[in-house]
Amino acid sequence: MSESAPALAQASEPSGGARSPGEHARIWALLERVSDPEIPVISLLDLGVVRDLRWSGAAWQVVITPTYSGCPAMTQMADDIVAVLAAEQLPVEVSTQLAPAWSTDWISPQGRQKLRDYGIAPPAALSAPLASVTGEAGAPAARVLRFMPRTGASPAVACPRCGSQETVETSHFGSTACKALYRCLSCREPFEYFKPY
Ligand SMILES: [Zn+2]
User: How many domains does the chain have?
Assistant: First the structure.
């Protein structure tokens, strides 16, 4: 793809180590420090927003997928990535990839734990075959999904504080549209639930 890459790397990095796998790992470690503008406790890596990191021959290309289309935080995410890498003298370009669309399923197990520690219930997995839960063999997945919310069959949202599954939704929208407000019936604390999508 980039025939000029070896020449460029040689010219700018006489030591020969900068465009090595070691630098790739170093950049991942730097990206780990870039947090989600809306939920600062989790990083963009935890969120699953960073899709790719590759050397183009002139700069490191960071490919990110917005958490939802038109997400206003995306510009800030890109700016933050550029700022963190530029501070380390690393040339960087951030590009956006819209397909496949981001899903809460992409949040890492580590990210889910961080959400819980922060007091936000992490989203339930969407990739689980819901049709098998309801036993409606042959029902189109979209149809099953449409009927899943707000029924007794929907998976209980565990309280992030005490772990109790005795919880109720008090408002479908929390501080942001992507979260719902819940209350725990065991410890009585309200909490936010990161809705799966
Ligand atoms: Zn509780």
Answer: 2
